[in-house]
Prior knowledge:
45% of the residues lie in helices and 21% in strands. By secondary structure, the chain is α/β, with parallel strands linked by helices. The longest helix has 24 residues, at 2-25. The N and C termini lie far apart (64 Å).
Amino acid sequence: MKKDFFISFCLIFLISFLGIALALEYPNKPITLQVPAPAGGRTDTGARILASAAEKKLGQPIVVINKAGAGTQVGLTETARQKPDGYYLGFAVVPALNTIILDPERKAIFDLDSFTAIFNHVVDPGIIWVKADNPYKTLKDLIDAAKARPGEIRVCTTGILSDDHLAILMLEEAAKVKFRTVHFDGGTQQLSATLGGQVDVAFGNVGEVTTRIKGGQLRGLAVMDKNRSKFLPNIPTAAELGYPSVISSSSRGILGPKGIPAPILKKIQNVFMDAIKDPEHIEKMDKAGLSIKPMVGEEYTKFLRDIHQRVKPLVEIARSSK
């Protein structure tokens, strides 16, 4: 029995020693940070700002690559398949991550347990917006028009089962209206169609339209958050306008493949937590209209699982209405 105890003690000591050794050695080569969205978008912009700040703390280059496709599913699949050594990390967009898993038609090879939740970077609140000369001056104008003409007001998203799509479902339920929903493949198409008059109203995120709203090209009708956006303080929240259940956002954080050793994971998390405090990082994020919302480890894991439960009934509604 003493021999068994001694062997167990030695194994625990060896594992601990190896873990410490790995952490001390890590990183000894560049790290890949993959973005599952096209270059130039808000997710990509935030990732590159963060990578620039983090690599100064890490002592190795962080190489940002883009693997766009299938509403972030291509990039997420690639992240899940990687070796869990801390050298390949991937951004995730929530709730897109959740809706991909929840929709059986997507045939995802991953679920939430396929990843190591590392660090949440941004929570970008949803916003309902229109072209500046659009006749809808307020959210009430939009709701009144939708009630008068059910199924005729053309509202658009950045993709099926995106946070924008779910936000439309929330507002339809809360206001007892029905829109005509048009899906695009991303923010560029959405902006072009809205400015060109092919659609009437867009559901998006604050970070995507802050500059254009401040420049007078677009008008925001409501921010879908508990509080007003610090970037657009004059735009009321949906809650202020009578729809407290209409809360939507696009969260962007970093995942790794399942099984990253705890000492390496801790080092990665510490680096990113230090990076977000970098004044240059804060300044660049503010200029981009992106709200920093750090969550690490268990807090981030809980956030992902809470969102999963929250969007599950909305996914069912969306699938049943196809």
